[in-house]
Design goal:
- The chain contains 18 helices and no strands.
- By secondary structure, the chain is mostly helical.
- The chain folds into 2 domains: about 425 residues, Growth Hormone, Chain: A, CATH 1.20.1250; about 55 residues.
- The chain is globular and about 70 Å long.
Length: about 500
């Protein structure tokens, strides 16, 4: 332990007075919402866009995959740039770039232009997301205030997907699919103005040379892994392209870890990951991210195909889950995390979410939304709020400020990788379950098709419940008991 006391910078002091920091939270939350909802808002618009500008189903897959590839693979680089160049500067660059890419996508006259725009959105999102979370982490250093801030931020991270479904449905139905991209210009403009007025950054402490071998291997490994998982969804696990890219990604990422252990100025200092609380947070978010996609993806299918919901009705159908997330993240997540830490909260949240997924296995061809879907959605949302708020707090707790960007990038990376794994695995399980059901009930003819689809959804929800159970076990084992470590770079007056 060093005996020197790191004082907050004058900029950080200004941010911590009055209501300034809470306005900073509004700006950061707005940017986070833009990035998170963009993962789902375009999915609702895709069928309409496909009819409008004319492209194949494989092209549709690339509109989704292009964003995921760029975002997931560049997050660590974005996090280190935030630490090295300045968090506020990278935040504004990310906002402006994201808005420009969204404008390009909204004006797309063909599939190529749309895919390029989505990849650029992902790249600038990778600059924006770690900068936002690290600015939050360095602005809120008091444990009580930090708990409240991360409760709100975690609620937005968990609920953003549902907001995207609703907003995407409304814009597609009443305006145009193009507005699902143009709407980001409004978010970004407000956030840029807010950033200049309300965000204060610290002097840059970490102008280390860039770890180029680490950058090349992290980007290469993550691109290969995400691409391989995306191929599994469309081409199956036995396709050489699928397992070849997944194996290559794992090998390259292993090389990345070996490099990070040896270089003087690593892209990802292993001290960031090897702390029990931060490591537990990254693992919990990755596994919960895989389970969460079972809710969004397959319940969307169920509501539109079986219940006959319009895009807007589907988006509204997810609002009760959003309310559940907001409730637990902003109350229990923010009030209890500073006092008792994440260890009791995240496992309990994961168990509640698992119970919600088990309830959803009751859906049938003739089920109603109110009886079969609504209770499961509310319970799952209550559980997810208890997962996201404490884990995002833990992911950046006790980390030196010059590592805050890369620590923030890791939580986003794990959520992205978890989501990619969840989408690939659950889509594969669903397809296999439907095929097996049809093979076993071939004599029933057309009636078997609807039941096969329901059977595939049941399979997915059981697996999602399993992911949440695994999240509960790993969280209980990895997190330390007790409150989170106080910010090591905070002025001593901030410590409680």
């Amino acid at each position: 332990m060093t005996t020197t006391i790191d004082r907050q910078s004058p900029a950080a002091d200004r941010a911590s007075t009055g209501n300034g920091k809470w306005w900073a939270l509004v700006v950061l939350a707005m940017a986070q919402l833009m990035v998170v909802l963009d993962a789902t808002i375009v999915n609702i618009a895709l069928p309409t866009a496909q009819r409008d500008i004319g492209f194949t189903d494989s092209g549709r897959q690339w509109v989704v995959t292009g964003y995921a590839l760029a975002f997931g693979s560049l997050l660590l680089v974005g996090g280190r740039l935030a630490d090295s160049v300045g968090r506020k500067k990278m935040f504004v660059i990310g906002l402006i770039g994201f808005a420009a890419a969204s404008a390009l996508g909204g004006a797309a006259n063909g599939i190529e232009m749309l895919i390029i725009a989505r990849a650029l959105q992902g790249a600038f999102g990778a600059a924006l997301a770690p900068a936002a979370l690290s600015l939050l982490s360095t602005t809120f250093t008091d444990p009580i205030e930090r708990g409240k801030a991360f409760g709100i931020f975690g609620a937005i991270s968990g609920a953003g997907g549902a907001v995207g479904l609703l907003l995407g449905g409304v814009l597609t139905e009443y305006a145009s699919w193009r507005w699902c991209l143009y709407v980001n210009l409004l978010f970004a403009a407000a956030a840029v103005i807010g950033a200049f007025l309300k965000l204060h950054d610290e002097p840059i402490q970490n102008r280390d040379r860039f770890d180029w071998p680490g950058i090349v291997t992290s980007v290469g490994g993550l691109v290969a892994l995400v691409y391989g998982l995306g191929s599994a969804e469309s081409d199956g696990w036995s396709n050489p392209k699928t397992y070849g890219f997944i194996i290559a990604g794992l090998v390259i990422l292993t090389a990345f870890v070996m490099i990070e252990r040896r270089v003087a100025h690593p892209l990802l200092p292993l001290r960031v990951v090897l702390d029990r609380n931060r490591g537990g947070a990254y693992a919990a978010v990755g596994i919960a991210g895989a389970g969460m996609f079972g809710v969004f993806l397959f319940l969307t299918y169920y509501m539109t195909t079986v219940l006959g919901f319009t895009p807007v009705q589907t988006g509204l159908g997810f609002l009760p889950m959003l309310a559940g997330i907001m409730l637990t993240a902003t109350t229990a997540g923010s009030m209890l995390t500073p006092r008792i830490g994440p260890r009791p909260l995240v496992p309990v949240g994961a168990l509640i979410a698992a119970a919600g997924m088990v309830y959803l296995t009751r859906i049938g061809v003739d089920s109603s939304y109110a009886a079969a879907v609504l209770p499961g959605l509310i319970v799952t949302g209550l559980g997810m709020g208890l997962i996201f708020a404490p884990t995002q707090n833990a992911a950046t707790s006790g980390v030196q400020h010059h590592d805050a960007g890369v620590a923030s990038a890791m939580i986003n990376t794990m959520q992205q990788i978890g989501g990619s794994i969840g989408t690939a695995l659950l889509s594969s399980f669903a397809a296999t379950a439907a095929a097996n059901y049809l093979a076993d009930h071939a004599a029933e003819g057309q009636a078997a098709a609807g039941q096969a689809m329901i059977h595939s959804y049941h399979t997915v929800f059981w697996w999602s419940a399993g992911f949440f159970l695994l999240c509960a076990v790993i969280s209980a084992v990895t997190f330390r008991s007790g409150p989170l470590e106080v910010d090591p770079d905070a002025a001593p007056v901030m410590a409680h």
